[in-house]
């Protein structure tokens, strides 16, 4: 039974991977979904078409979240099409790995621009625009608790997102808007798998007591919980969806 009719969810970085799974799940739960993408126009259009074909409602919205004006225009487009936004899911992100001593400026700057500043820009817009009773759901990462070599810049951006989550939850006082984060562990997506030898993937698969990688749908389930009525009393929290890895 759908319980989210007439509510609008904006999912950043939704054209593939975890973002696509989140958009699909929220649409199945009755949300109208704004599928944000930066460069993957065909994938975003195909996802929106699939949602529509399944009886849902979806709109694609191109925006590089590291550009604050593009973020503003994206919220404008959602407001013009559907009257407003009830849920923001901050999923857009990149991951570039290297020991900190070997990390060049581009590796550091690009992750700060997209992962951290991009999330702050969308959170800022959501703080001004999300309708009363809405939800802001950020995507962190369980690397914040794993402290693996090679992840310094990436983990730093995600730690910043967690700090902002706690602060914004308090700043939304009086508006019945919850702010939480979901922190996936190793999840079988292109972002995670690309560039890793099979031996590393096998090692990471065994780390969790459940002895498997996460699936995008596992993360989408956690986001759907926070976005739905059952998550209404959860606020200012980081939910580590990682099979017990940390």
Topology (elements, then pairings):
Layout lengths: L7 E4 L5 H12 L3 E6 L3 H13 L3 E6 L5 H15 L4 E4 L14 H25 L5 E5 L3 H4 L5 H20 L6 E5 L7 H4 L4 H10 L8 H12 L10 E2 L7
Parallel strand pairs: 1-2, 1-4, 2-3, 4-5, 5-6, 6-7
Helix pairs in contact: 1-9, 3-4, 4-6
Description:
This protein is of the alpha/beta class. 47% of the residues lie in helices and 13% in strands. The protein has a single domain, classed as 3-Layer(aba) Sandwich (Rossmann fold), CATH 3.40.50.720. The chain has a seven-stranded parallel sheet, sandwiched between helices. Helix 4 links the parallel strand 4 (87-90) and strand 5. Helix 1 (17-28) crosses helix 9, helix 3 (68-82) runs parallel beside helix 4 (105-129) and helix 4 runs parallel beside helix 6. The longest helix has 25 residues, at 105-129.
The main β sheet shows up as: 7 strands, parallel
DSSP E strands, number: 7
What letter string, H or E per element, gives the SSE order? EHEHEHEHEHHEHHHE
Q: Please list the strands of the largest sheet in the order they lie side by side.
A: 3-2-1-4-5-6-7
Radius of gyration: 17 Å
- Count of runs of 4 or more consecutive helical residues: 9
Structural class: alpha/beta
Beta-strand proportion: 5-15%
Average pLDDT number: 94
Please tell me the CATH architecture by its name. 3-Layer(aba) Sandwich
* Oligomeric description of these chains: single chain
